[in-house]
Amino acid sequence: MRGSPAGGPRRPGYGRSDGSRARAVPEPRRAPEKIGDFMDAFLEGQGVKQQVERVSVLDEWAERVGPKIAEVTRARSVSEATLFVEVRSSAWLMELNMIKGRILERLNEDRDAGALEKLVFVLSQDG
Hints:
Elements: H1 35-46, H2 49-55, H3 57-65, H4 67-71, E1 73-79, E2 82-87, H5 90-98, H6 100-108, E3 118-123
């Protein structure tokens, strides 16, 4: 409903009091921002950037540890700076505990934020 000269309702900012339309002044264009930069700043502002970075290791597990280890394990969860990994057998559990330091190094390689501090292997209940 348009504003009327008789004093009827007007939409705010629609036109001038004389009934003519005001020309909108275009705002200066800004260069587009990369979504990754925006998300990094947002997550950091929320205080969760490090934990989001840590949790990303769940998706990267197989790639970072290789197919042989990935076949007998499953990265289950991250709590604080600790990654919990299920292992298919007790023999593998012992083997992986012996090379835990090297695996942790691989997992933290190329990480700017959110390094994992501890790796815990647990025997899978699925057998």
